[in-house]
Amino acid sequence: MSATITPVDASAADTAPTPAPRLRRFVRPGAALLSGLLLYLSFPPRPLWWLALPAFALLGWSLRGRRLRAGFGLGYLAGLGFLLPLLIWTGEEVGPGPWLALAAIEALFVALAGLGIAAVSRLPWWPFFAAAVWILAEAARARVPFGGFPWGKIAFGQADGIFLPLAAVGGTPVLGFAVALCGFGLYETYRQIQTRRAAGAATGTVHDEDTDADAFTEDGGAGSDRALATRAGTGLEAAAGGRSRTLPRGPLVAAALAVLVPVTGALAALPLVDDSAEDGTATVAAVQGNVPRLGLDFNSQRRAVLDNHVARTRELAADVKAGRAPQPDFVLWPENSSDIDPYANADAADVIDGAVRAIGVPTVIGAVIAPETGKLRNTLIEWDPDRGPVATYDKRHVQPFGEYIPMRSFVRIFNSNVDRVSRDFGAGTKVGVFDLAGTKVGLATCYEAAFDWAVRDTVTHGAQLISVPSNNATFGRSEMTYQQLAMSRVRAVEHSRSVVVPVTSGVSAVIRPDGEIVAETKMFTPDVLVEKVPLRSSLTPATRMGTLPEALLVALAAAGLGWSAFRSVRARRTAAE
After folding, report:
1. How is 438-461 classified by DSSP, letter by letter?
2. pLDDT score for 205
3. Which residues of the chain have pLDDT under 70?
4. pLDDT value at position 224?
5. Quick one: which of 487, 463, 434, 459 has its CA closest to 546?
6. Residues 35 and 83: beta-carbon distance below 8 Å
7. Which of 188, 395, 494, 531 is the catalytic position?
8. Bridge partners of residue 527, in order along the sequence
9. Which among 446, 448, 494, 520 is annotated as catalytic?
10. Are residues 184 and 127 in contact, defined by beta-carbon separation less than 8 angstroms?
11. What's the whole-model pTM score?
């Protein structure tokens, strides 16, 4: 019996239709988009924090070994998949234009992160550099343009996650870095295992050695995929010659460490999460008066908003007198609880003063101050039951396109809603810490909770408790209020302080220093929360170090990008010789 081998016509194979490669070109863009969607799903109100890990693993697979231009495009798709659904509440009352514009602009920072991750993905230990590049992009997004927009920092989706204790170590940058590093590490671990399996199947024997494994692909394109096939092919040739394929151990160790370091670090940081009452306790009341109706026009019934908060405070006073509620040490009203200037309107001052006298303790009032000239002020007023208004705090980071309109004449071309803000708000300059019945309360008004410096400043100025008075009525029943509440939970752990969040329309909450919510309201219902909370004065490493951890991570990202550029230049020179 004989056997014949029919040769394959190479030219026929080359000209045969190949639909599969055409479809494969959409796999990585689809994966990048999906990674962004998974990031969105990891954010509140869903308790799916762990989805951030497969999101970064999938993003790492999409970007590793790509050209820089492809990395930018894939990163932009990931950014859109993440930020379009996350920020949909910004168009709740003004239409889709501002929402789409904001998401499109903010996604550019994710695109730049994608470019950087693609560049450093060709380096040894690339998950560490890639995670640092992500934090570099977040740091930039938190500062520019118009003072930045840090909404959607990865850390803010981790209030229920195992990595949360790291917020006390290095704030939101370290927490976000740990999540990204673990996700990239999971992908790299999988890739290294698959590489060894492929090489083992090709050669029959695989040895490990302690050398650098990640070959630098000079073309910067699909090099990582082709490299796997090349290594397997090399193994076959080696097997034919009686030799075995040798794989270095270093990359597998690096991949494992990328997973283990964040998890181990989070466990080691657990002792920093402490809700003991170092300075005793305080009984605090948070008033949620509610608004007449949802939407931007709630301000047209400003007196109704004020009267709602007055009524809830008087009801609390009656409950205290009847023994149905404990006597609070102080009371916190939300931002904009009095959009009528009590300094200019005696009737507003009278009803506020009457409510404060009824409850008999210092009360913080959120008011809009309208001087005769100049800009408006978003102000918190400490109102004493005997002396009236005794201290003020002006919001330091006012919201662009919400409280003031940059480039008003240009923006008006695209959306006439800018004229709803007929008079811009101005920013304050002083850190807000009120002494309320012997308790030092730090103040970060609404949007300020998203900014690391705005909350940290209050603690370094002596705050034993943090208040985040907010007004979310403009955004209806969207996810916005839950996203913001998660920020306050992260801040509680970051600075080891109780955080009280009074909101005009909800969700108001009382949070302990370990990030646990001990009381919260429903949305668009009048309510009052009265809780005893621990007071603390010690400083966490995150509070002490401030921006240093972020700066170190930015330096790590810069080192990786510089190293990648150096290797690229060197490779081109070598190729030219």
Report:
1. TEEEEE--GGGGGSHHHHHHHHHT
2. 55
3. 1-20, 202-246, 293-300
4. 47
5. 459
6. no
7. 395
8. 288
9. 446
10. yes
11. 0.89
